[in-house]
Amino acid sequence: MEIEQLLILVKPDGIKKSLTGNILTKLSESRMVIIGAKIVKVSRDLAEAHYCHLKDKLFFNELLDYIRGKIYGEPWDRVLAFVYQGEDAVSRMRKIAGATNPEEADHVSIRGSYGRITTKGVYENVIHCSSDPSEAAREIKLWFKPEEIVKEIYPVKKIVVEKE
Ligand code: GDP
């Protein structure tokens, strides 16, 4: 199995609803390691770059306001950003995160447990999780400087995981 890295964001609704602890607990079931972590006030440029694949969607502007926390205001207008590393990290974390539409997500997944669609149609799905390894690499470069990632394992390098 490949050692992969991926970007996780606890979105502003996750922070506002005090879900950070619950989310990190669920993610920790994967036994992956955190190799980068920080809180970010998301600029419009960063939000646009992160979601560039959705720029033609009708909900794009609303999505930018959501990820920037504009619809919640201070002190919720920020995200927690993490880089995780582990075997098959992307597909395993996507499973724990759940489907994009929180109403269709598995009930035991993070999005299925804590997400909702608002009356204005915003998919409040509490976390972002990279969708494939190449997207993950692009996103990690966008959100983190190399020196913000634990040095000896950036870029991708095999790590030894002790068996319990
Ligand atoms: P993800 O990788 O599962 O987050 O899915 P996407 O990259 O396709 O979408 C990015 C984010 O845009 C999602 O997490 C949702 O917050 C939002 N989104 C995606 N599809 C829709 C939609 O059909 N309607 C609305 N309102 N938001 C959406």
The 3D shape can be described as globular
Low-confidence parts, pLDDT < 50 over ≥5 residues?
A: none
DSSP helix fraction: 25-40%
For the record, give the distance between the C-alpha atoms at the N and C termini, rounded to a whole number.
19 Å
Number of strands: 6
**CATH superfamily, please?**
Nucleoside diphosphate kinase-like domain
Radius of gyration: 15 Å
What is the number of helical segments per DSSP (H or I, 4+ residues)?
A: 7
Order of helices and strands: EHHEHHEHHEEEH
- From the 3D structure, determine the CATH topology: Alpha-Beta Plaits
Which architecture name does CATH use? 2-Layer Sandwich
Give the class from helix and strand content and strand pairing. Answer: alpha+beta
Note the quaternary state here. Answer: single chain
Tell me about the largest β-sheet.
4 strands, antiparallel
How are the strands ordered across the major sheet?
2-3-1-6
Total of domains? 1
Give every kind of bound small molecule, once each.
guanosine-5'-diphosphate
CATH class: Alpha Beta
Task: Give an overview of the whole structure.
The chain has helices at 12-16, 20-28, 44-50, 60-67, 89-97, 110-114, 133-143; strands at residues 3-10, 33-40, 79-87, 116-117, 123-124, 127-129. The strands form 2 sheets. It has a 4-stranded antiparallel sheet, with helices on both faces. Strands 4-5 form a two-stranded antiparallel ribbon. It has one domain: 2-Layer Sandwich (Alpha-Beta Plaits). The protein is globular and about 45 Å long. The chain is α+β, with helices and mostly antiparallel strands. The chain starts with a strand and ends in a 21-residue tail after the last helix. Bound molecules: guanosine-5'-diphosphate (GDP). Residues 54, 59, 63, 100, 121-123, 125, 128, 131 line the site of guanosine-5'-diphosphate.
